[in-house]
Queue: 2 jobs
Job 1
Amino acid sequence: MTQRAAGAGDELAERRYEPVIGLEIHVQLKTRTKMFCGCELAFGEEPNTLTCPVCLGHPGTLPVLNAEAVHFGLMIGLALGCEIAPRSIFHRKNYFYPDLPKGYQISQYDIPLATGGRLGDVRIHRVHLEEDAAKLVHAGSSGRIHGAEASAVDFNRGGTPLVEIVTEPDIHSPQQAGEWLRLLRATLKRLGVSDVNMEEGSLRCDANVSIRPAGTATLGTKTELKNMNSFRFLERGIEAEIARQEEILRGGGAIEQETLHFDPATGSLSSLRSKEEAHDYRYFPEPDLVPIAPTDEMLARAREALPELPAARAERFERDLGLPAATAKLLAFRSELGDYFEEALAADSADAPALANWVTVELVPRLEDEDPFASKVKPRALARLVAMVSERSVSQSAAKEVLDVLAAEGGEPAAIVEQRGLGMAGANELGAIVERAIEANPKAAEEFRAGKQKAIGAIVGFVMRETQGRADGGEVNRLIREKLGA
Amino acid sequence: MSELLELSAAAAAERVRAGELSARELFELYRERAANEDLGAFLWVADEAPEVPADAPLCGVPVAVKDLFCVEGVPSTAASRILEGYRPPYTATAVERLIEAGAPVLGKTNMDEFAMGSSNENSGYGVVLNPWDRERVPGGSSGGSAAAVAAGLAPWAIGTDTGGSIRQPAALCGIVGLKPTYGAVSRYGMIAFASSLDQCGPLTRDVTDAALLLRHLVGRRDPCDSTHLEFPGEVSLPGAESLTGLRFGVWGLEEEGVEPGVAAACRAALARIEELGGAVEEIELPYAEHGLSAYYVIAPAEASANLARYDGVRYGARSLDGDLTSMYERTRAEGFGAEVKRRIMIGTYALSSGYYEAYYGRAQKVRTKIVESFRAAFEKVDFVVTPTSPTVAFKLGERTANPLAMYLSDYFTVPMSLAGIPAISIPAGLSDGLPVGLQIAGPPFSESRILDAAHALEQAIGFEGRRWR
Ligand SMILES: [Zn+2]
């Protein structure tokens, strides 16, 4: 009996778990004005300067829906392959908090703008519109409203249009969550509907996390993680929560449904509220607004506004240009980088995989700004340089030197090669150097003739040093072999 | 002076237009009366006559405005202590349109707090006395507006009607009150009670004044109110003297709670209708009897959310007491009156998870049924006629201890509110020396036809309603 009990305990302790993760993403839309009033949207203005009676919740004021926010919402819904609701409505979500001037948030509830789409390997549950809360600033050490000496509200952010995107629980690792969120971010950025800046809060992500014994299908009790305002924090937060849940289950305990706050400073999770403390938001249809019923014109306009999206672009790079999957993704998910690459590709006859490699491996570390177009290296110049490498008029290592000069000063690669004498060593020059190299390494020459292939390395190295990299390795090899009669 | 006071608002406007009367003199006459009244009808009175453009159609005839409307820089409290000292930074669309049309604001009138009540006894700033009998209520919630018009303290007034708040006080004060089609008048700047029911309308001495005031309240779409609708055409001024060819469907006259005197006055009015050539028949309005029950779920539910903004954070009263939660609790405990608290609690309960379908969901179904009942009725008749209120004005304090008895005041007016259709109350006669109102309702946007019929009937009844001294 004891044997079996111990066995069962071991089994519990060694059981492998599969994480099941769903994400809820809030996206601040880059509309000209707020969701329900005419106040301008701007980041970093003097507090409480972008307000009006409507977004301050004055008595008697009424919301009026921002048509541009609906347009952006439709674009997002269509980009994610969702079905657009012929008629969606707003509800009031009731709760008291100083950052919520009306005492309720206007949000879509049971009939959202769009449902049932897919992005990459993750299904989209729903996409809906709502308004953002204002910003609270707390004086005192607690950093939270409870225990604060005083709290101030900045209503500039209050009423910013938000789109909430909810995924199905299709994600199974923190890394997958991070990677998928990057794809979503790239997609939204490409749509031009948001700044999608996690640090500034224009892209915010909550995660619903549960685990289950690997191979089983039922869902475990989930917890909700909040406040992960970077990709790194998202991955770390989910990782920490999976570890916490595994420890509880391995110890024979049960997961409690609760909302957790991730503290990036300590990497720890603390409970915000349990299921019992969960709000009853008393949702009911917002009587001050009429339903959103997108017309054919609205849908057509949203469809026409869709650019090629990152997932499709990566696929095209891979399929049509023969780029490796990772490189294709890198270029497509950073849409400026993809644009830069395509402009360069169109400018010269460079080989696409080689050019892509130069953009992602060589250019990116040399960029001072996130935006490659801000660099002094013009797409046409980089394309020329890569073409010169494949034409063998400049060596790989010399080309890297040329790129350093381009990045620092700009200019044309051919001129830089000319000025700095970085061109390939000519046949005569190279022949002479090879001869000197053999003379200088008699021992290596002897060994090579005796059949020790490796010995050639010393002679090649001499030539490369002498030419300062301005020689093609293959050509140098060939010449040495010829001179040594091999 | 008294001669000027006799003029209806439309007649006064004509005098000003003809150059026989100065708008300033007219304003000063009423300003003086409003500032010195002793009914409790006004909460604020303007200091001086504002400039009115010479060609403005309403010629400077001032209007009393229910305190539920925001007027820039003017105290606007919805008769609640929680908004004490609040001066809005903007003006309600309805008031702005009247000012533009040449009807400046004379003052702000008393009301039941946040329009919740049928007697004006729920005001945070004192009761209003009925000019017909100072021991009785003027009705509510637009009690101040109704009393002001009946007592000649204002040429005319605007109020709001959520379940009868224009029509019932108009009936109890012996004047005309019209609740327009839901969406006909912009709600922007009208402090919300129950958003899906609230509607602004005129309280006037006669039907012509009601038509004239309504004409300038409705009109082009207000971009600030998503539920506002452009009025089809212009409101015509009534001129009908006959009711020939019109069918009137009578509902509820036999109901138990209708006072005999009220029923008698209404029957007399129905006889006038027939004399004028109208056809009168009894009709059924299925589900209308459940109107009150549905109303007392829907209106408090919406109110519970609409009144959440009064939290002491941004404006109005604030009772500081330690932490945030205590500030909320004390501010609202001290700022709201008993009836407002009762309705917030009813509404909060009705929307709570687990109860939503049983209360709010079912109430909405009843509402849909009532809409269908009226639609069916209007296939057979042109108008639905009922007593406006089952009783005449009751004594102050008589129903304050019994909310259900108070709620019954709105039995006949609530179904039209739920259906969103227009309805007018006009004086039908007297019962024991107190006015009785007759309600005439029609399909959506039938205001001009209702006003025309009401005008013909008004002429035939010849009610003498002036109660000033
Ligand atoms: Zn605003």
Note: Chain B has 15 helices and eleven strands.
Job 2
Amino acid sequence: MLVDQGNKVAEQELDLAPLDEMLDEFAEEHGALIPIMQRTQGIYGYLPQAALRRISERTGAPLSQLYGVATFYAQFSLKPKGRHTVDLCDGTACHVRGMPQIVTALENDLGVKAGDTTEDGRVTLQVVFCLGSCALAPVAVIDGQIVGRLSPQKAVQLVRKLD
Amino acid sequence: MSEPIYRADVLVCAGTSCESSGARSVLAALTEELAKTGLDQEVRIIETGCRGFCSMGPVMIIYPEGVFYCQVKADDVPEIVEETLLKGRIVQRLVFTETESQMTVPYYEDIPFYQKQQRVTLHNCGVIDPTNIDEYIARGGYEALGKALGEMSPQQVIDEVKTSGLRGRGGAGFLTGLKWEFTAKAAGNPKYVVCNADEGDPGAFMDRSLIEGDPHTLLEGMAICGYAVGASDGYVYCRAEYPLAIKHLKIAIEQAEAYGLLGDNVFGTDFSFHVHIKEGAGAFVCGEETALLASIEGRRGEPRPRPPFPAVSGLWAKPTNLNNVKSYANVPQIILRGAEWFSKIGAERSPGTAIFALTGKVLHTGLIEVPMGITLREIIYDIGGGVEGGKKFKAVQTGGPLGGCLPEEQLDLKVDFDSLRQAGAVMGSGGMIVVDEDTCMVEFSKYFLTFATAESCGKCVPCRMGGRRMLELLTKITEGKGTLEDIDEIDSIAAGMAAGSLCSLGQLTPGPILSTLRYFRDEFVAHVTEGRCPAKQCTALVQYYVNPETCKGCGICARNCPVNVIEGGRRQIHIINQDGCIKCGTCLEVCPFDSILKVSGETVEVPTELIPIGTWAK
Ligand SMILES: Cc1cc2nc3c(=O)[nH]c(=O)nc-3n(C[C@H](O)[C@H](O)[C@H](O)COP(=O)(O)O)c2cc1C
Ligand code: FES
């Protein structure tokens, strides 16, 4: 099964119109599965089951293949994200400058493991690799904004401020 | 209306790193200030790509004088405009200061960071506005393509690249010209040109900076390749995490097509070349060429055995030439200035320059370009300014998660493809990370192994099981539960993986750990025989204590402890309850009296019950 029960209810009302419109653009294109899924995630924030079914119908790619692609690439998520996303860079430069302690501090403070979303849907905590701002290591991206030269305390303070 | 004649150019780096240090607000302030003072008809602002000196960002260079300002903030802008642009004076506090001598260096050309560098591949990066094709053309852009199309046969182009000795910058160092020849000679139509801009190494941003700062060089190189191998379509496979690079590339393609330098009938000839961008979706293994091609085709990015090589059977099973960004970016200059010119730069068997993302515990981090054959010591000390914070150098890691670590004894090693490989490291695609005495080499190799094994596609046993098993053993060692036999077993699994894995991912995964074992075996041994982590990094082997002799009983540690395991009242010697301590190090960070001891492999005697400060006797 692609998604857990909790998301089912919301998914029934999923508006597939923007998806269909986007799929029209790709009607002719060769090997466009990944871009299609990227755009779908752009529309819904994640890959809802209903959307994957529609993509399968329209492109002829079996659901199993879509699932294979979705789970292979780190970018895709089958679960909805929280209101805020915190991406912690554990690339080598950030790693040697203390990211592991920051990850632990935030995991403790939020009560979730990296990769998960808090129960109240407030924050999704993720670990990523190299954001290309190694000179500012350790670095995080909080809701799209790069913040550098973090410490465990500074990170916890910043994340607590997200409403 | 014609462009005004400017008397000064202000170059502001707007690469990813400077942007995250605040380059946008500097640019906004500058635009506003120039308008306010009426200088906007005399002074031009140019947003450039990366200048390399990322740790000093945002950086700004003012020409014609070449004044170099670092860590510029929006608030500094009025003073820069007033002093430098109006009165021609230097704002001393924004000038680069050498740490040791405290000397100030106001001009770009004198900055020590740049002294030993040689900008060939990056010659436009940080100098031109990457979103303006005219600036690229003004610096000789697209002349090489014109020359190739107008004066050279495809075979002559291939011969020129072959003679230059250019080796692939994606890591393995395969001869670029030879690869082109294979693709050109392969049977099958159509053919494709693919650029590997996946740059999955954690801690690397060379390709990204190049595309952000000078996208046309890549496009021109790819078009020349297309002409040489007989392809009319090119793909750039770029990480989706690089939005700015993708944006600049898209703009560049549009502009080049509008000028007839890409697209149908390039330069009015019957050669056509269309470039498409494919965004990766986050999988390190997609940097491997066969996996990358699978990913462009929309499949899971799983590598397949070679041969057949992509040159024979690549994208959609057609002959495909695949190179790294930097390999293509070197080509226009080789065509324009000649193979001989290029082959004289750098080292004999590795001509040209190497681009590294120099990061970690080094004073000046950033993007550097150096002639091949330079020593590691010159890079780390002369360019990087040495280890940060007066700490002791321990190792330098090159080649990313499939590379290797080199110790102090190897610092005089010359940097080229072959010397690095012999020493147990690899060139890789260009990450260079310096670590100091605070990094545990066991943990460090575990980090790379964790990264690489998570990317194993699971198809072959040596890679799937070998990586996992080594990781278990390393985890055991970092937890102080390892034995000497475990170290030997790592050795033998590593050898098996290197010999028996299906693709280079599995074959190269043991690299970091093998080189670490070769040079830092004593650290592994200390973990298993003494239960000691020399760098005091492995949490299971580290303890924190309140120093009973210097504790002032202020309570700051107890208040900040996230798990509340520090006991003690006012003016009492505080005690850390070892059972509950999660070893986060917060107490050490917050103690105003340096009274927290961090130890490994030794015990500290402390009071067993709460007593007033100053009353402790062993
Ligand atoms: C696991 C793995 C990851 C790789 N990642 C990259 C990468 O990020 N960028 C790159 O250019 N080459 C990467 N390579 C090397 C490519 O397979 C290929 O050799 C290279 O792109 C060829 O280009 P070149 O001849 O210009 O060096 C990787 C190889 C492996 C095995
Ligand atoms: S390693 Fe974190 S930004 Fe590069």
Note: The two ends of chain B are 86 Å apart (CA to CA).
